[in-house]
Amino acid sequence: MSDRTDESSDQSDDTTEFSDELESLLGDDELTLGELTRAIGERSFAVVLMILMLPAALPLPTGGVTHVLEIAAVLVAAQMIATRRELWLPRWLRDRKLSATFTKKAIPAALKPVRWFERFSRRRLGVLLDTRGALAVLGLVSLVLVAAAFLAPPFSGLDTLPALGVVLLSLGLIFSDVVLVGFGVVVGAAGIALVILLGRLAWSFL
Fold first, then answer.
1. DSSP track, 53-65
2. Which of 64, 81, 145, 167 could form a cystine bridge with 162, CB 3.0-4.6 A?
3. CA torsion sign, 88 to 150 to 144 to 43?
4. CB within 8 Å of 102: residues ≥ 6 apart
């Protein structure tokens, strides 16, 4: 019993450290994506994917920056499919400073739900998520969801659910929680279904 208690305590400490680390890193207005990936190490795929999709997942004015970030997210998802061990970013993206959309809006808005997931997430079947096959499959799922967010009609808000699905899936990978990953897939799939449904309705109306 004591071993289980100690393990649970260690996991709680690890998840708490993630949100604190994220807040500390992203509070730097001069932070670049390259510096971020070096700082977070092996979690870089999931963390960078989550950060790139955060603006689209939150009801915030972004000034069209989401499409640029979604193109970058496609690159990250493609490397997950290829089961790369280290995240590679082109120089223009690696040296890009995170905009005020992240540091002043997206991150403060996201930290509260991230901490909520830290509190309730557990390492459930995490060993399955650590395999190369799982990384490739989840990379493919992420790619589909990112594409759905990218192709959603502009200014419709329909990109929110697919983007949120990617964010939740990424958090599931960070916390090694297959339940949270599954929840992200369901939310993303619902977003795709909504885009298709409303698209058909609009086409029929026209």
1. HHHHHTT---TTH
2. 145
3. positive
4. 26, 51, 54, 55
- Structural domain including 179 reads 2-205
Residue 37 and residue 87: Cα distance in Å, rounded? 8
DSSP secondary structure letters along 135-146: HHHHHHHHHHHH
Q: Can you name the residues that pair with 32 across neighbouring β-strands?
A: 97
pLDDT band at 136 (very low <50, low <70, confident <90, very high): very high
Lowest mean pLDDT among 36-50, 54-68, 154-168: 54-68
Q: How far apart are the first and last CA of the chain?
A: 64
Q: How many domains does the chain have?
A: 1
Q: Give the length of the chain.
A: 206
Other CB atoms within 10 Å distance of the CB of residue 60: 14
DSSP reduced 3-state for 168: helix
- Total-model pTM: 0.79
